[in-house]
Amino acid sequence: MLAPPATVSPLLRPGTITAAGVLGSPFHGDPWGDAGVLAFRDPSIVSGSTAPLSLRAFITEAMPAYGFHRWALVLIALLQQIADGELSRLIVTCPPRLGKSLLISKLFLAYFVYRHPHLFSAVASYSGELAYAHSREARHFYRATGNPLSRDSAAVGNWLTPQRGGCIAAGVDGPFNGKGYSLGIIDDPYKGPHDAGSARVRDRIVEWLKSVWFLRAEPSFIDAGTGALQRNLSAQVIVLTRWDENDMVGWLLAQELEQAPQHWHVLDLPAIAEHSPERPSYPPSVTVEPDWRQPGEALCPERFPLQELLKIRQRTGAFWWSALYQQRPAPAAGGIFQRAWLRNAFPRKAKRRYGPLILSCDLTFKGEEDSCYCGFVLMGLLAPDTGMAQRLEIEVLWAVRKRLGLPGTVHFLLAASAALHKQGLRPNAVLVEDAANGPAVLQVLRRKICGLLPVPPRGSKELRAHAVAPLLEAGQVAFHPRAEPLTEELPRFPKGSKDLTDAFCHGALWLEERYWKGLGVQDAPVPLLLSR
To answer: How many CB atoms lie within 10 A of CB 129?
Structure first.
């Protein structure tokens, strides 16, 4: 028989199993060398402390090289609340390759079993292989921190503790019958954009959620000894990167408006922090974790600096950047404005001439952090080439949004007017919505900018959008590359930012109504939707 070691390494915490032997036990007291599977714990290293580790301390022991970046600390605090029974519904949306699966589906899953060895956990993903991979790593971290497995069940897809808790793993739409769970983790339920964009696949997963997944969650019960409601017996964690606005998260949030809301807590992590008006709204029953960053800051600069994110944005394009990295998916085809309607500039043989050229402005009420943006869109009615008949062709030359108060708006309009004059693009009219800061801007700049005209905000933004949409559908509106902020916003309308869209609609309606229909310029332009 082997002699016991003379000393125990000071790097070993009491109760820790290190890498040696078949399954990681270097201690002579384990005759099989597989302490984890056979539930053996050497008496000489059993700790006398009964206080459980925190999740952060558990991660430090299980994976000493783990980087505790700021986003991870925020998520760890929420996961700790789940393990402590203080939170039961959590949705996490974040960019790809951030490390969400490592933290949630591996480290936290192992920690939950360590904290509650008598309870069962379940993990699901788009495939059984991926769910098994998460479960395998969770089992490793659980065992690496000195916690035993049951003698009779240590399979990667279904492993147990001596207290008969443990973990089961399967693919989404897979077999969970016969097992209940106290913690359910769904990690990336869609394989890719084709699955997330397929109504058939989405509907199948929703039916699985309703008929299998949610039904396997353990119910709360009244403790016979204390008479108190036992908490934390049906915790749910949904973590994914958004692909489609009708994906699992979209469906869950829509259900919050029904008669039985689940009161989800949402941790929404866009790759680049947004201003308040750009952030999505949620049902009243949903709580949202505040973003700790200033607008424009990268989520994890240690791994993805801002400059790298901007390069990724150029490579992926606006649609996938908005969905995958900002967690703001838009309809693939678009909403009121279809993506297929967004065409490039009209062909011209000679120099482009506009009659007229206008700058349309949608202004805000104030310049504070929680205010809306000001939207500015330069657009014109394109004159035909010599010898060709006049057609209704509106071109949008550029669009820009800025957060400005009254002084900033006045300064920007004066500077923009001067810059356009130098480029030979003197607007024939500057349209200012007669609301918010509009009247004040009109009063200050009336004698400084030619063609400054008020536009009454008649009707809603949606009604104006519906009035302009036929022009795009008929191919009568084109967009230059510098109008990209507008072409990004149009397909998402009426969700998200609306300032550029509203400025564009005011301008398009004014051009059609006041010029194309031959009515001439008047002091009070009438929106097209009210004249039809």
So the answer is: 10
What Rg value do the Cα atoms of the chain yield, rounded? 30
Element holding 381 (H helix, E strand):
strand 374-382
Q: How far apart are CA 90 and CA 82, in angstroms?
A: 9
| pLDDT, position 177 | 66
272-315 confidence digits (pLDDT tens)? 999 887 788 899 999 999 999 999 999 999 999 999 999 998 88
Q: From residue 48, how far is each of 14, 58, 179 by CA, in Å?
A: 9, 17, 34
Please give the backbone phi and psi of residue 362, each rounded to the nearest 5 degrees, phi first.
-120, 110
Model confidence pLDDT, tens digit, residues 347-401: 887 788 887 889 999 887 554 444 567 899 999 988 877 666 677 889 999 999 8
In the chain the domains, ranked by start, together with CATH numbers, are 55-325 (3.40.50.300), 339-531 (3.30.420.240)
Contact 136, 110 (CB under 8 A): no
The three state secondary structure string of 386-443 is CCCCCCCCEEEEEEEEECCCHHHHHHHHHHHHHHHHHCCCCCCEEEEECCCCHHHHHH
Name the H helices within 246-301. Answer: 248-255
pTM, two decimal places: 0.67
Name residue, tokens 């869209």. 501
23-59, pLDDT tens digit by residue?
A: 444 444 444 444 444 444 544 444 445 789 999 999 9
What does the alpha-carbon distance between residue 298 and residue 312 come to, in Å, rounded to a whole number?
Answer: 13
| Angle CA 281–285–288, to nearest 5 | 55
Phi, psi torsion values for 126, nearest 5 degrees: -65, -20
Take residue 172 and report the two structure tokens written for it: 């989404």
CB 160 within 8 A of CB 166: yes
Q: Where are the beta strands (DSSP E) in 65-219?
A: 89-93, 120-125, 154-155, 158-160, 166-171, 183-187
Q: Per residue in 59-111, pLDDT tens?
A: 999 999 999 999 999 999 999 999 999 999 999 999 999 999 999 999 999 99
Q: Give dist(CA 327, CA 303) in Å, integer.
A: 18
